[in-house]
Amino acid sequence: MADQNHETTDFVASHGRPTTRTPLISMRGITKAFPGVLANDHIDLDVYGSEVHALLGENGAGKSTLMKILYGFYRADSGQILLHGEPVAIRSPHDARAMRIGMLFQEFTLVPAFSVTENIALFLQDLKVILNIKAIYQRIHGLSERYNLQVNPQALVSQLSIGEQQKVEILKLLLSNARILILDEPTRVLAPHEVEALFRVLDNLRQDGYAIVLITHKMKEVLECADRITVLRGGRVAGSLPRSKASEDTLVTMMFEKGLAGLQVSQKLAADESVSPLLELRGVETRGEGAETSLKALDLKIYPGEIVGVAGVSGNGQKELGDVVLGLVRCIRGTKFLFGEDTTNRSIQAVRKSGVAFIPENPLTMATAPFMTVLENMALTNAWRYARLGGLAMDWQAVKTDTEDTLKKLGFSFSLYVPARSLSGGNLQRMVIVREMTHHPHLIIASYLTRGLDVQSTIAARQALLQARQSGAGVLLISEDLEELFTLSDRLIVLYGGKIVGTFKPEETNVYEVGHLMTGSEVQHAAHN
Amino acid sequence: MPHTTEPPSRTSLPGLNVLLVIVRYLIIFLVAFGLFGVILLVAGKDPMLAIRDTFSSTLGSAYGFSEVIVKMIPLIFTAIAVALPSRVGLINVGAEGQLYVGAWLATWGALTFAPLPSWILLPLMMVLGMIGGGLWAFIPAFFCARGLVNETITTLLMNYVAPSVVTFFIYGPWRSPFNSLYPQTVDFVPAARLPTFFGTRVHLGLILALVLLVLYWFILKYTRWGLEMRAIGGNPQAARRNGIPLTLYIVVVMCLGGAIAGLAGMSEISGIHGRLRPGFSPGFGYVGFLISWLSGGNPIGILVMSFVVALISSGGDILQINQGLPFAVVNILLAITLFVVLARPALLVKGKSA
Amino acid sequence: MSLLSILGVISSAIFSGTSLLYTTLGEILDERAGIVNLGLEGVLLVSAAAGFGVTSQTGNPYIGVLAAMLAGGVMNLLFGFLVITRRANQLASGLAVMFFGFGLSALIGKPYVGARINGLPRFMLPGLASIPALNTSQFKFDLLIYLVVPMAMLIWWLLFRTRWGLSLRAVGENANTAFAAGRNPHRIQYQALFFGGLLAGLGAAHLSIAWTMTWAEFMTAGRGFIAVALVIFSKWHPARAIAGALLFGGAVAFQLLLQASGIAISPFLLDTLPYVLTLLVLIVWGGTRKHAAPASLGRVYQGTEQ
Is the ipTM of this complex over 0.85? Predict the structure, then answer.
């Protein structure tokens, strides 16, 4: 348990640059495995007071898991956590909070119907039985003045912008006595000026001795406000260095795999641009709700017989892009053309009927009726095709035949008569792929197609895409696997913050350039169009 | 005959499933009856006598049995009226109100078109009953589909508006000048009465209800619409992404549920009462909700539970006559049965979701 | 339309509205904690019967009131056992409690149908007696009536000025957030249900012991449901519930007044007024003020996975 008196001397310590002090928190040899993935592999991390420590890495690198272990959400399989050099056991967020560790999650734990004050009061450790609203006001006021976290204490949280809500979350942390603050991708939902404001807040906090761990994948932020940077890749520490020694290039090199030797680049077909494109987005904008990303001024064309790969860290608009093509998300500006026709406001059913297939990133929640059998699920997107007698009956034999044909073609196999939810994640994905590919779609939106699949199925799924391309279909391939993107795409675009920040042919670029764009840093090369 | 989704061969005995279901129901009833018996004892009554009397008067005579069937008819209707929307994830607590409006509109038809022959008048009344109930359900459906208000609250509130409006008509423009003791409409002409069978009070409504039950089962299991409805109920988000028009189904299915409840009203007043009386429904809509909920929307379950509840209700009559207990006491037994199911003791865990 | 008849209407509205207000306050507590009790009608009936019966047996109306309160609390705890501990569907459980209440109240009340009791004594507030115009027997009210508005303020204060109230409201908005803040949602919901039940019992007691001083089957005549509607109409706020209770409770009395002045509106149509008003409020306001209802109302708190 931290000694409060001891803290004051530490707090008034030097501004920012740690010397040979003991770290506030040391994590040693942290290892954590989940079914199927080793999230953290013997990770060491030191967190010092008066310092902003950035934890940089791609999605799935293990940053969130590591910090959730520190916050007591998970328990490490092996390893140690030391507080001021003394080993401690953190078994729950309660323990973590007792050690003055606080975490700001991507999903806020705010009650929208409560005021700012009530939300903060709810989390105060020393809340009195009879609320003294005025006293709480004053405490909030004091802190928000000090750290530039101004927000109206009487406002309802539902009326606040996301940036303001985040300020409330930070105030909650500060007022519950945390002195080690873990922020999980805090700028994902902020506008640029709000990001600036946040950095100023972090700077003020750091000067007062707080230790801040900033989880992020954005290069600019790291270089702008971090004192120390640790890069995680594939569950391991790829490198840890002070800001002075870091540059974009060194960091990108650490974040992405060095060797892409042996990358089998499949034969690229040049898209026939004389023909009308299958899909055209012109100036498309969407309005994201809450934590969703808004797409901004998107221009995109997909021609028959080409695979367009979409690179980017997930959360930068990939889901919204797929959804806007499908018709689930409305464009507030711009037009969408499918097969030459303006389909900006058409229903999803109409979009699908015209030959668009959609393989979503989460098959269980986004594409399946869990309690119905696999065979029944097969008919869901094409019920009109299999309906007989005006809808009174369904031609299940035809469904079965079509499905089995596709199964044979793709080399998949799973039972047709079990409830869909009993399938494993990989099999669910396979089921969705089979369903979507069965009717020779002209345009395929594939979102994280091979996530969770074993090697064999991955190859088969990719083969299926290539086959589709061969027969003249167009594919929008959204993926976080750069190797997959480079191998399969005829053209590559990079999404960042809801915008397309780069368009290339894979042979004209390399992982590092793409990596730069994915993390939002400026690139020397001009973006091709 | 179109191929179904059943697998070509079964590995487990089909009979075993049915047996388990029967055993489960039996346990529920035994526990419930047991508890009810205890309460009767505490109240100074004889439970064994009550049970004997109930069985002898209901199952012991043909007429008694027919009376149970009579009580069962409206329950089947309202149970379907709740079960159908529940398949798309809608909660229709408004069957009671929809029933009243259906009865009201059917009454208007009976009074206005009295000269018409039976084979025109009766179907007309049926259609009117369905329109009435359907319209009453449309209002909550509309607001639910727009995402404005939860359909549970709206259907519930509308349950309290309907009977009062109906009563207003009975005391007002439709009041019969003849029978001044109890306010009610004039008697319906014979052409407006559903025919009965074999000298009992069991009327054509039974056939209607059973037909609807079969239709309900058939539509859900075999048709394209049933498939898409079940998809919505199972995962509305995925259904939307798969191109199923959610809003359309919500409104249509809710209105269909209302229409069926409206038919329940029509069949009650045309088959049993022959006039519109205030408060003619002792809560059919609510009991239907519970039957649908208890049976998980399963057609056989609806049939069985409707019968059992009708049986219990007959028992209530007996209790009142023979042992001097108010009829309302039978509600205790109904409630205890529900408590037993709701409390989901380990003995009965089946993994069913309401 | 004399002063006397206006006073009569107001007096009627106050009597009718009081029991409604107590019940509504109790349901506000429950719903603020995320639980909707459709079985309120059953709870009221059992409480009314119990209170009346005890008063008749003991001859002491105060003990009767206490008995009614206790009955309400116990009925709500039964309901709570189903929806909190057994995680049952709130709507179905509520309806089950309603049926249970119908039957149990009939059983308890049967011996007392038609009995006479000593109701709660009625008196005038000392200040009012000096106003000659108001010095009529119609303005003699019983203790519960005088206490109801202070009670509403007390509930307001509990909900918005105490730590318990803050926790309760947090549970009703988002039980997971409340849990993350260190609260125990199940325990809080039980507490809310018990106190809500006490209040509902108080409302029922006023009906059978203080106002009508009779017992008849189904005597609550839908007040339980009017209360549920009133909770929505007053947007889950105790202060607004006062106005709503007067309005809803007075609808019938108002109709008499209208009749006396020659306007004839059917009493049955007026009966629908509370519900139509509530529907209008929901439709008009429901779209804009999305957060009027506690966000987790009706949802079953599953507990967290470890």
Answer: yes
